Each structure stands twice: as C-alpha cells, then as structure tokens.
Amino acid sequence: MSLLLACIRQSNDPLALPIIPVKKKQEKKDDDDRWFWGVMFMFWSFFQVFRNTLVDVFMIIATTLFLKDTQNPLKGPPGAVFNPRRIVCRTVSLDDIKLVKNAMKTTINDVALGITQADLSRNINIIYGGNIKDEGAIEKDNLPKKIRLRSTLVFNLRPSAGIRQSGGNCVGYVLLPFTIALRDDPLDYIRDAKATIDGMKRSFEAIFTSSIAELAFKLFGVKTASALSYRIVSGTTVCFSNLVGTMEEIGFYGHPRAFLAPGTYGQPHMAIVVSVDEGTIPDPHQLCADKVESLRLIEDAVVTRGLA
C-alpha cells in the first residue's frame, strides 16, 4: 500500500504526497511513588507477551502442518483462490463508528472487528436455517456448537506509519480468531473483539511470521516462501485488514480520484470492501448490507442505554 500511495499526489498540489493521519503518542508522566507497581506491571506484561507469543507461534505451526478451520458456508473449497472474485463496497459514517468507540472505550479496530463478528455470525446462522425477526433480532440459533473460524490479519510492522518511496514491504501476519455466536446483547460483540485484539497486541506473533517468511525466502527462494504463506492462508476462512485513508482528495498520475478501494480520502467515512468467490458466497451485496445492519444494531444499543 505504501508503494501505491507513493505514486499518488494531492489533487490541489501535484508535487505533494497525500497526508496520512498518524496517532499521536501520549506523553508519560514520571511518578516516583508508583515505581514498585510499575516494575510489577512490567514483569506481568513480559509474562503475558511470552505466554501469548508461545501459544500463537504454536498455532501458526499447527496451521501450517495440519490445523484447518471448521468447514463452514463461508470457507471456499480448495483452489478457490484461483477463481474470479467479486468486489463489493459499502460506505458508512465514521461518526457512527466513533460513537460506539467512545461509548465502549475501545478503538476503531475493536469496533470494526466486533461488527464483522456480528455480521459473520448472522450470515452463517441464516445459511444454517436461522430466522430473523422484523426488528433484525435472530429468533433461532442454528449455529454449530463448536466452530473454528479464523482470519489472516496482515498489518504494517514499520515503527511509524506513513508513505515510504523505498524500502520494500515490511509486514507480518497473525491468526485472528472470530467468535461465531449469537449474542442477546449486541455490545458483547465489541467486548469480545476488544479482548481478542488486546491479547494480539501482547504477542510477537507478527514479528515471528515476518522473520520466518524472510528466512524461508533467503534460504529456499520465493516458491517455498509463497507456499508457506499459502498453507497458512488456506487454513483460515477469511482475510481481514483495514487501512487509513488520506486527509485530502488525491490524484493518480494527474487523474483525480474520488474513491479508492479499500481506502477513501477524508475521514468522515469508512469504506467496507468485501472480496469473495461468488461460487462460495453468491450474494456479497447482502454480506455488506448485513455488516451495515450489524453496525446499526450495535449503535442503537449504545444510544438506547444512554452510553453515548
């Protein structure tokens, strides 16, 4: 994505690179009275990182060798990666996402993952024969009791976000488990997502996978490295990622761009982009519509309870 953005310029200034918003780091204040608890917290954090990394690395190795997701209606058959894909886009208001984020004291990533979990749970239940009330609540739970559904999450490992015109890719990937279940409280999807992402942040799984991929490439070549990555991706059901759009309108070699999937310019909106094999998911438009509906249900729950 950095290479693509490096080819893009601002529409009002053909020589200027687009501006990517960067999260500001909070300044830490020293407190001599709490040094003991700070040391204890550091050791506890180190233990959590060590434990989570050990478990995550084991899951990566197991997935590479034999562990696959439970067969489900959203998982494509072998060879589906070579089939033509249908790309569907929907745009939602970023203010709605921020409303849930601020009410639940989470991040935008937590909300996006929670909405996706609600959407996938809803879709799989419908496929298995679930019925939906007029208000959008699901009457009957037809989901399998134990279903393993994971996503391959790819993200940037560079120390700082932004646009780089050289240096190549520096990415890692992790296995992100989705909680497929029907919740009486829509906000439980956000809570589950936050717990999952918090655990993922306390792990070096991405650094491990990036290092292994680089080592395999240097020792055995691109075919072996690609086969290794394919084994991991094919063992999961979906790929999940998100990108931050630019702050202004952009142009590509002098041609103005009003929309770019999977990103958009400006911050008032969030684009939802779904890429599917139509042989597996024949109605991707409904998948996007259900994702928007899941956001509405979660937002309504926040407003109804006076959390906003």
Automatic annotation (TrEMBL):
Molecular function GO terms recorded: O-acyltransferase activity
Pfam family, one: WS_DGAT_C
InterPro entries: O-acyltransferase_WSD1-like, O-acyltransferase_WSD1_C
A cellular-component GO term for this protein: plasma membrane
Highest taxon of source: Eukaryota
Any single GO BP term: triglyceride biosynthetic process
Protein name: Anther-specific protein SF18-like
Organism: Hibiscus syriacus (Rose of Sharon)
